[in-house]
């Protein structure tokens, strides 16, 4: 699992811009309603980091299976990521164009060899590797390691984020 504020969503969005036929699936879109989030036994506050209760795992797993089968985000799905602060991190245009061309070439090669359409599903979330059924749906796994001081600074600068049922200051 990569820590919160480690750059997972930023990386997913950059990859989405260069990978042909790609979609992003945000773990936070599968958070339960606020009243169902477990309370931390010691601190007596809702524990949005507790893997067992912070995500509605069966719903996420079924969603991943459907996207993997169809190559599409179901039309009734509404992500809440657009409500979160969107920090722009520039990438050199020549580098971006180089990777777009490279991934398009790779996609065409794979599709010709496999005789099937390639869709890149980018799954973004810090609890994903906790659930074995989610792991089974992932063909490639990436973990970001970020120094503690950098994470602390990024968390301090974050103005909040939104899930399906809640906004956080």
Describe the secondary-structure layout.
Blueprint: H1 8-18, E1 22-26, H2 51-54, H3 57-70, H4 93-114, E2 120-124, H5 132-137, H6 148-157, E3 161-162, E4 167-168
Parallel strand pairs: 1-2
Antiparallel strand pairs: 3-4
InterPro entries: P-loop_NTPase (IPR027417)
One letter per element, helices H and strands E, the order comes to: HEHHHEHHEE
Helix content: 25-40%
Output the number of helix runs.
Answer: 6
Give the tally of β-strands.
Answer: 4
Distance between the termini: 23 Å
Q: How would you characterize the largest beta sheet?
A: 2 strands, parallel
Mean pLDDT: 82
Q: Kindly name the structural category.
A: mainly alpha
**How many structural domains can be distinguished in the coordinates?**
1
Strand order of the largest sheet: 1-2
The shape, in one word, is: globular
* Rg, alpha carbons: 17 Å
Percent strand equals: 5-15%
Low-confidence stretches: 161-169
Give a description of the structure.
The protein has one domain. It starts with 7 loop residues before the first helix and ends with a strand. It has helices at 8-18, 51-54, 57-70, 93-114, 132-137, 148-157; strands at 22-26, 120-124, 161-162, 167-168. The longest helix has 22 residues, at 93-114. The chain is built from 6 helices and 4 strands, in the order H-E-H-H-H-E-H-H-E-E. With 169 residues, it is mainly alpha-helical. The strands form 2 sheets. A two-stranded parallel ribbon has the order 1-2. Mean pLDDT is 82; it is low at 161-169.
